[in-house]
C-alpha cells in the first residue's frame, strides 16, 4: 500500500493509548502468566511498559525491526530490517511479544519466524495483519493511518465552519 492510500487519519492521545494498552493487559490476564515481554521497537516500547506494569512483569527484552520511513516518508513501507534480535533462547514459549499495531503483518511475520511459540499482542490491528496477532484491542480499517502520541503535538486549528466555506 502506498502512502496516498491512507485516506483516513486516527490520532491517538496519550490518555487513549494508556487506556487501550490497559485494556490489552486485561485481555492478557486470560492468557498468561508470561516469563517476560519482547517489545518490538520502537512502537512497542510504550505499550510494553504499560502491559509490564499491569501484569507485574519485570523482564523486558527488545527486538528492533524497522520498515516504514526508511526512504524519508513515514507512511512508505520499505524492506523489513531486523536491526537487533532479542536474546531469548528457544522459540519463545511462555513469552509475550508486544507491538503498537499490526498493519500489513510483515513485521509480525518476521518476528513470529524468530519466536513462533510466543504470544503476539498489539494494541491496534488492521485487517491484513489481524490473522497474525493472538490478542489485540481495537481494529481500524486498512486505509487508516494511526498517529501515535509520540508523533503528535497540539496545534491551533480552524473551526469546522471555516473549513466548509
Ligand atoms: O504490519 P506492518 O505493515 O509491518 O506494520 C506494523 C509495524 O510498523 C511500525 O513500525 P516501524 O517499522 O514504522 O518502526 P517503528 O516502530 O520504529 O516506528 C509499527 O510500529 C509496527 O511495528
Ligand atoms: O497506521 C500506522 N501508524 C503508525 N505507524 C504505522 N506503521 C504501519 N502502519 C502504521
Ligand atoms: Mg514498529
From TrEMBL:
<feature type="binding site">
    <location>
        <position position="103"/>
    </location>
    <ligand>
        <name>xanthine</name>
    </ligand>
</feature>
<dbReference type="GO" id="GO:0000287">
    <property type="term" value="F:magnesium ion binding"/>
</dbReference>
<keyword id="KW-0472">Membrane</keyword>
<feature type="binding site">
    <location>
        <begin position="145"/>
        <end position="146"/>
    </location>
    <ligand>
        <name>GMP</name>
    </ligand>
</feature>
<dbReference type="InterPro" id="IPR029057">
    <property type="entry name" value="PRTase-like"/>
</dbReference>
<comment type="function">
    <text>Purine salvage pathway enzyme that catalyzes the transfer of the ribosyl-5-phosphate group from 5-phospho-alpha-D-ribose 1-diphosphate (PRPP) to the N9 position of the 6-oxopurines guanine and xanthine to form the corresponding ribonucleotides GMP (guanosine 5'-monophosphate) and XMP (xanthosine 5'-monophosphate), with the release of PPi. To a lesser extent, also acts on hypoxanthine.</text>
</comment>
<dbReference type="GO" id="GO:0005886">
    <property type="term" value="C:plasma membrane"/>
</dbReference>
<protein>
    <recommendedName>
        <fullName>Xanthine-guanine phosphoribosyltransferase</fullName>
        <ecNumber>2.4.2.22</ecNumber>
    </recommendedName>
</protein>
<comment type="pathway">
    <text>Purine metabolism; XMP biosynthesis via salvage pathway; XMP from xanthine: step 1/1.</text>
</comment>
<dbReference type="GO" id="GO:0006166">
    <property type="term" value="P:purine ribonucleoside salvage"/>
</dbReference>
<feature type="domain" description="Phosphoribosyltransferase">
    <location>
        <begin position="13"/>
        <end position="153"/>
    </location>
</feature>
<keyword id="KW-0808">Transferase</keyword>
<dbReference type="GO" id="GO:0000310">
    <property type="term" value="F:xanthine phosphoribosyltransferase activity"/>
</dbReference>
<feature type="binding site">
    <location>
        <begin position="103"/>
        <end position="107"/>
    </location>
    <ligand>
        <name>GMP</name>
    </ligand>
</feature>
<dbReference type="GO" id="GO:0032263">
    <property type="term" value="P:GMP salvage"/>
</dbReference>
<keyword id="KW-0328">Glycosyltransferase</keyword>
<comment type="pathway">
    <text>Purine metabolism; GMP biosynthesis via salvage pathway; GMP from guanine: step 1/1.</text>
</comment>
<dbReference type="InterPro" id="IPR023747">
    <property type="entry name" value="Xanthine_Guanine_PRibTrfase"/>
</dbReference>
<feature type="binding site">
    <location>
        <begin position="42"/>
        <end position="43"/>
    </location>
    <ligand>
        <name>5-phospho-alpha-D-ribose 1-diphosphate</name>
    </ligand>
</feature>
<dbReference type="InterPro" id="IPR000836">
    <property type="entry name" value="PRTase_dom"/>
</dbReference>
<comment type="subunit">
    <text>Homotetramer.</text>
</comment>
<feature type="binding site">
    <location>
        <position position="103"/>
    </location>
    <ligand>
        <name>guanine</name>
    </ligand>
</feature>
<feature type="binding site">
    <location>
        <begin position="99"/>
        <end position="107"/>
    </location>
    <ligand>
        <name>5-phospho-alpha-D-ribose 1-diphosphate</name>
    </ligand>
</feature>
<keyword id="KW-1003">Cell membrane</keyword>
<keyword id="KW-0660">Purine salvage</keyword>
<comment type="similarity">
    <text>Belongs to the purine/pyrimidine phosphoribosyltransferase family. XGPT subfamily.</text>
</comment>
<feature type="binding site">
    <location>
        <position position="100"/>
    </location>
    <ligand>
        <name>Mg(2+)</name>
    </ligand>
</feature>
<keyword id="KW-0479">Metal-binding</keyword>
<feature type="binding site">
    <location>
        <position position="146"/>
    </location>
    <ligand>
        <name>xanthine</name>
    </ligand>
</feature>
<feature type="binding site">
    <location>
        <position position="146"/>
    </location>
    <ligand>
        <name>guanine</name>
    </ligand>
</feature>
<keyword id="KW-0460">Magnesium</keyword>
<dbReference type="Pfam" id="PF00156">
    <property type="entry name" value="Pribosyltran"/>
</dbReference>
<dbReference type="GO" id="GO:0032265">
    <property type="term" value="P:XMP salvage"/>
</dbReference>
